[in-house]
Amino acid sequence: MLEKISELKFYAQELYHLESILSLLFWDQATYMPQAAALARGKQRATLGGILQQKKTDPRLGLLLSAAEQEVRQNNLPYHSNEASLCRAMLRQYDIDRRVPADYINRMLEHSSKTEQAWLKAKEAQDFKVVEPFLSQTLALSQEYAHFFSNWDHIADPLIARSDYGWTVSQLKPLFTKLRQELLPLISTVLAKQNQRPPACLNQCFPKKDQLSFGEEILAKLGFDFERGRQDLTAHPFAIKMAHEDVRITTRVAEDHFSEALFSSIHEMGHALYELGIDKTLEGTILHQGTSSGVHESQSRLWENIVGRSLPFWEYFYPLLQTYFPKELSTTSLPDFYQAINTVKRSLIRTNADELTYNLHVIIRFDLEVDLLTGALKIKDLPEAWRERYREDLGVLPEHDSQGVLQDIHWYFDLIGGQFQCYTLGNILSAQFFKTAAKQLPNLSEQMRTGNFSNLKNWLDQNIYRHGSKFDGPELIRLATGDEGLKLEPYLEYLSKKFGAH
Amino acid sequence: MLEKISELKFYAQELYHLESILSLLFWDQATYMPQAAALARGKQRATLGGILQQKKTDPRLGLLLSAAEQEVRQNNLPYHSNEASLCRAMLRQYDIDRRVPADYINRMLEHSSKTEQAWLKAKEAQDFKVVEPFLSQTLALSQEYAHFFSNWDHIADPLIARSDYGWTVSQLKPLFTKLRQELLPLISTVLAKQNQRPPACLNQCFPKKDQLSFGEEILAKLGFDFERGRQDLTAHPFAIKMAHEDVRITTRVAEDHFSEALFSSIHEMGHALYELGIDKTLEGTILHQGTSSGVHESQSRLWENIVGRSLPFWEYFYPLLQTYFPKELSTTSLPDFYQAINTVKRSLIRTNADELTYNLHVIIRFDLEVDLLTGALKIKDLPEAWRERYREDLGVLPEHDSQGVLQDIHWYFDLIGGQFQCYTLGNILSAQFFKTAAKQLPNLSEQMRTGNFSNLKNWLDQNIYRHGSKFDGPELIRLATGDEGLKLEPYLEYLSKKFGAH
Q1: What are the chain A neighbours of B285 within 8 Å (beta carbons)?
Q2: A48 and B229: CB-CB below 8 Å?
Q3: To 5 degrees, how large is the angle CA B13–CA B109–CA B472?
Q4: How far apart (Å, rounded) are the C-alpha atoms in residues A45 and A414?
Q5: How far apart are CA B10 and CA B285, in angstroms?
Q6: B377 vs A501, which has greater pLDDT?
Q7: CA dist., res. A124 & res. A131, Å (int)
Q8: Which residue of A has its CA nearest to B23?
Q9: How do residues B148-171 score in pLDDT, each as one tens digit?
Q10: Which residues have C-beta within 8 Å of that of residue B199, sequence separation ≥ 6?
Q11: What ipTM score was computed for the predicted complex, to two decimals?
Q12: Is the pLDDT of residue A502 over 50?
């Protein structure tokens, strides 16, 4: 009956499979591929990416989409139906793909691989100047990207929409500013109250094999389905989906840095649970993926921080951890261990930051990329602006650019703009979702304390995961929480309850 | 200057990369993919395979090939030049791809996945009848395939050409018949002379980890470049290439069956060395692959049998093996070990057969598939014909079909015809190549005895591997050996020298 929609689904499947294959090419390169094959792999990815791009911008897809949309209207299919949602999401993506010319994409890909090389050199030389001319061009390309679109209030909006459709500078900027204002005094208070010599229990050697076994036991207990996924080792942890039954995560283990493997595993598992929880009926379409980077990050953060760094969690798991590491931990009390994994510290590197200061790192980057895009900040002044903000917000000063403006790959691999909001968006959202879940599951803390995480996971499955990309971020928040939109309060409450109590 | 050839190379690259990606999809499915994703992986492979098929049969490729061929002629490019060879090989492949209709390929793919399922059930039920109707259709499809082509002497020829272009029934049938005639008495003689109670040293438990370490040490010593490849575990060992710098092999380990992992590793390494040795300038084209299944098999067999099961090889490696397994092997002498890995035995299963009886298994299958294709043998009579030949040639009788006609996947997964000749072709050729190498490297045995395999590998690189598919099998034999064509004598000499001496 729904002939055009059937045709559209058929078309969508081909795109979906090609995206999945691109994911495998990436996963394999990061895990098992002989490193000598990097150049060949780049060509394979470019070949497949080109074919995919062609299919995504084929005018026949445009015609099919119009016809399918008409069918949706004629049949009064409701907004939340799979069919109406598919048309909506594919039309939005098609519009974007058509606006961005193939020539631009090729220029950008070529530029970004050169920039990444220059960035690696700059990092080694600890000197921003090495990559500065490249980054100037990245900025120009980013501004060019924005101008492919119209109807935006702020030049950063189309860049934010690439990963967090539904949010704009006008919404995020005040929210982040408010969060910063709340965090600065909170961090000072916590630091003043916090034990000046945090427990040293993590500064020991934890054998790699045992860390991995413990981590896998935790993942299984939290609900990661090893029949539909796996965990491997990579230089940088990530989660990636190849199919509804094939979602893989990676981790890295440092024997002298216990938190790294465990919390990165739980973090990536959060991303994976989201993808694994999407309704199977959406498979083979663009809807079978998390709806935005920020919402995705809310799930990795929820599992990593709100669950994985909570006291109830460790009331249940700490005895198990002690059986894995009797020599290292038998004399460490649970409160000491809990404090050790929740120590707050002003520091230079985002990826090593604690839960509380982490947002300051993100907000600095968000503000800077917005100012770069508007022209309020020049590329040449970026390192100094960076230092200034670190001094002001975090009270620390990078000794050189590699500890500063060169530390993250984002700007040196992709565009400037839309690269960082997802992290703090995710933190804020994680608390908003968790608060709603806790309201509907009254004894959730008690459940966690007894090792029962399945009600929480079911709640997330039902209220967030299963929808995939049927709804954009703001829509999903309304649906899952009943709130009007993104709210900062639950996160502030969560932070002050957790860290105020120190 | 060579504009059309440049264009052709560009076109060839896309095909090459897509083939490489298909290989990765296969490798990943066999190694690390969660098994629950098999259905999704099938769809991914079908999607990509369809795109590739379309590009391979695009009439624009036909026009480009004609133009490029003209350019080759106008510029008097010699037969052995990369350019002339590329045109030749691509034209041949294009002709095949155009003759076989897309509709036929779809029917065949659908049929083969159903047949494989039926075969699995038949194997479990130990009853050929379960799969018989499917196999009847496979035979019809195989005959249909042959009729897409013209100018053949024997209906099996187009099927043989799929994997061993350059050879036909009229050449292979007499050669295999002669080999069988020589083998039957030789096997009887060997069995009569051979120690009736072969050394029991292999009937012990060899720990998996140590078997793998020993195997990797051997591979490295023989010249497998772990910077450009790797080894993983799978249910069925194979070798596969994703790029000039990415050739992977797999193995399987049975703790109570020491020979399996080691000799399958060396076997697959032989395939890998061939692919790794192809001239880098051929990469990105159809020429960057071994020229035929039989020639490929000659390399896996040469390394596995002529080298890996030889006395000089073990004179060098046996002391190392004893250090890996002191408990298991310290009281076993080298001659006993050598006899244990070279024991001849009449048996039912091809893949477990020794070097000498192996060919009888293959020739039986070759003869049967030729008779099926001509109609001389009916599918319903196949199991009985199988039993009859096993009784006659090997003096053993399968108790049920799973030990007989159901044992190999080949006919139940692909077409009938051209499936088995490569194994015996490979054996014959391995001796022909090795004899030539030994003539040009006079103290080759002595080199092997002292752990020097690099001259042999260099000879193979120079005379066989580097050419890729520039020459077909018969051409390559002439080039590498100076012989007119395939010769049986070197193999018969090799066998009677090795096994006559028992």
Answers
A1: none
A2: no
A3: 45
A4: 16
A5: 9
A6: B377
A7: 11
A8: A25
A9: 998 899 999 999 999 999 999 999
A10: B332, B336, B337, B339, B340
A11: 0.94
A12: no
Interaxial angle between packed helices A489-500 and A169-193, expressed in degrees from 0 to 180 and rounded to the nearest 10:
10
Chain-chain contact of A227 with B35 (C-beta, under 8 angstroms)? yes
Contacts of residue B305, Cβ cutoff 8 Å, sequence gap at least 6: B355, B427, B430
Residues in chain B with CB shorter than 8 Å from the CB of A231 are: none
B301: closest CA among B404, B435, B396, B424?
A: B424
Q: From CA B40, how far away is CA B29, in angstroms rounded?
A: 11
* CA-angle at A23, arms to A219 and A26, nearest 5°: 95
Picking from A314, A307, A232, A234, the residue whose alpha carbon sits closest to that of residue A267 is A307
A24 closest CB neighbour out of B17, B28, B227: B28
Q: If you search the block for the tokens 């050169």, which residue do you land on?
A: A114
> CA-CA distance, A24 to A22, in Å (whole number)?
5
**B36/A242 CB distance under 8 A:** no
In angstroms, the CA A462 to CA A454 distance is 12
Identify which of A52, A68, A307, A469 has the alpha carbon closest to the alpha carbon of residue B21.
A52
CA B169 – CA B146 distance, rounded (Å): 13
* Cα→Cα distances B228→A33, A119, B231, B247, B285, Å: 9, 27, 11, 6, 19
Burial of B392 (0-12, 13-18, 19+ CB in 10 A): exposed
Selected residue of B16, B26, B35, B51 to mutate for chain A interface (largest A Cβ count, 10 A):
B51
C-alpha span between B484 and B171 (Å, rounded): 13
For residue B329, what are its two tokens? 């092997």
Test A37 with B242 for CB contact under 8 angstroms: yes
DSSP conformational letter for A254: B
Token couple for B185: 């008495």
Whole-angstrom distance, CA of residue B303 vs CA of residue B456: 10
pLDDT by residue (tens digit) across A263-300? 999 999 999 999 999 999 999 999 999 999 999 999 99
| B30: contact with A, CB 8 A cutoff | no
Q: How many CB atoms lie within 10 A of CB B467?
A: 23
The whole-angstrom separation of Cα A186 and Cα B70 is 78
pTM reported for the whole predicted model: 0.95
Residues making up chain A, counted from first to last: 502
User: Which residues are bridge partners to B404 per DSSP?
Assistant: none
